[in-house]
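Ticket #4471: structure output looks truncated?

Reporter: J.K.
Steps to reproduce: submitted the chain below (173 residues) through the standard prediction queue, then opened the result file.
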Amino acid sequence: MNAVWIAAALLTAGFVGWPVTALVFRLARTIDDKADAAAGAGRDAADDPSADVTVDRPVADNTSAADRGNTVNGDITVEAGAAAALESGGEAPVTRILRGGAIIGVLERLAVCLAILAGQPVAIAYVVAIKGLGRFAELKETPVAAERFIIGTLASMLWAAGVAAFTKVVLLG
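Returned output as attached by the reporter:
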């Protein structure tokens, strides 16, 4: 019976954590939007260096890629060489950052949950180190991506740790 509880915990941590993390992102965005509205209704977000330009806006089917903001299929994007592209009369190319975050998040939650259930919480440090080193270049160049990375990692890990702790204490005794 323990194997069933462990399998259920891994599935819950890995795959139910995805919508939980998305909810945390939405909550963070709502808090930022309210703070921005209260701080300066007259300021333009494009002129505000602290503005979160990665907000996933609802997109109508008839909008062009340039009107969609800084996302491509839900990934965060930045304009690469926008000045050069505008001088030549073309559109600015788009570079995706933090690609594969959803899949990495599932694997991260599985690893954290498994580490706690196996009684090896030190393994969580390896997961964090690998994830941070793998994303270091992107995080260094894009502060907004770094913020999203931290929020997502903390939400993911807390969810996985909570599921593992509940399983270990309550279900496995």
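Triage note (M.O.): checked the attachment and the full token line is present. Confidence is low (pLDDT under 50) at residues 45-59, 63-69, 82-87.
Status: closed, working as intended.
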